[in-house]
Every structure is written in C-alpha cells, then in structure tokens.
Design brief:
The structure is a single chain. By secondary structure, the chain is mainly α. Helix content is 69%, strand content 8%. It is elongated.
C-alpha cells in the first residue's frame, strides 16, 4: 500500500488536482503534538488505509457467511432460494454479466 500512497503524494504535489482521494486526506492530516502539529507517519497512513479497506469488505463477507450458514442449516430453503436467484439473474454466465449493471440487490 505504501508505494500507492507515495505515488499519490508525488502526483498530488505536481498536479494540484481538484479530485481528492482518501490518501489525499491522510496526506493533509495534521495531528496536534504538544505546541506543534505533525503529519501522519507512513505507518499510520498504511494502517488507516487497511482499516478503511477492511471495513468495507467485513460487512459484505459477514453477510455472505450468514447467508451460506443458513443455507446449510436450513436445507429446505435451498430450492426456493435457487429458484428466486435464477429467476432474478437467469441462467448462464452472459446473462449475469448483462444484468449486473442494472441490478443493485437481489
């Protein structure tokens, strides 16, 4: 992650873009330390980026684990679940690709 943060820092300094990324906000943060202010260290930025990315995937993976656990625990719902899923997405890989851009939830 550090090479990406460093690359963004170099790009930010040379282009002065209007678009801000999460890394940009971290590069601008100044923490109070006594009477002075300090920037985040590279290690702190890497930790915050990791937390940010993991936070987004944690809820998704937890929901999928819960769904799969219930499919195992309640086998009688599998046919109904499968039927609804196929009715929504259709059969075949190409159908999934065409519909995924239009559908936001199942």
């Amino acid at each position: 992650m550090l090479p990406l943060i460093r690359a963004r820092q170099g790009r930010k300094e040379e282009l002065n873009e209007c678009v801000l990324s999460y890394a940009d906000t971290l590069l601008d943060v100044q923490l109070p330390e006594g009477d002075e202010r300090r920037k985040l260290s590279e290690g702190e930025m890497v930790s915050l980026c990791s937390e940010f990315l993991n936070g987004g995937t944690d809820t998704t993976s937890t929901a999928l684990e819960w769904i799969l656990a219930n499919l195992v625990k309640l086998p009688h719902i599998r046919p109904s679940f499968s039927k609804r899923l196929m009715g929504f997405w259709g059969k075949g890989r190409n159908m999934w690709r065409r519909k995924i851009c239009r559908k936001y939830h199942i």
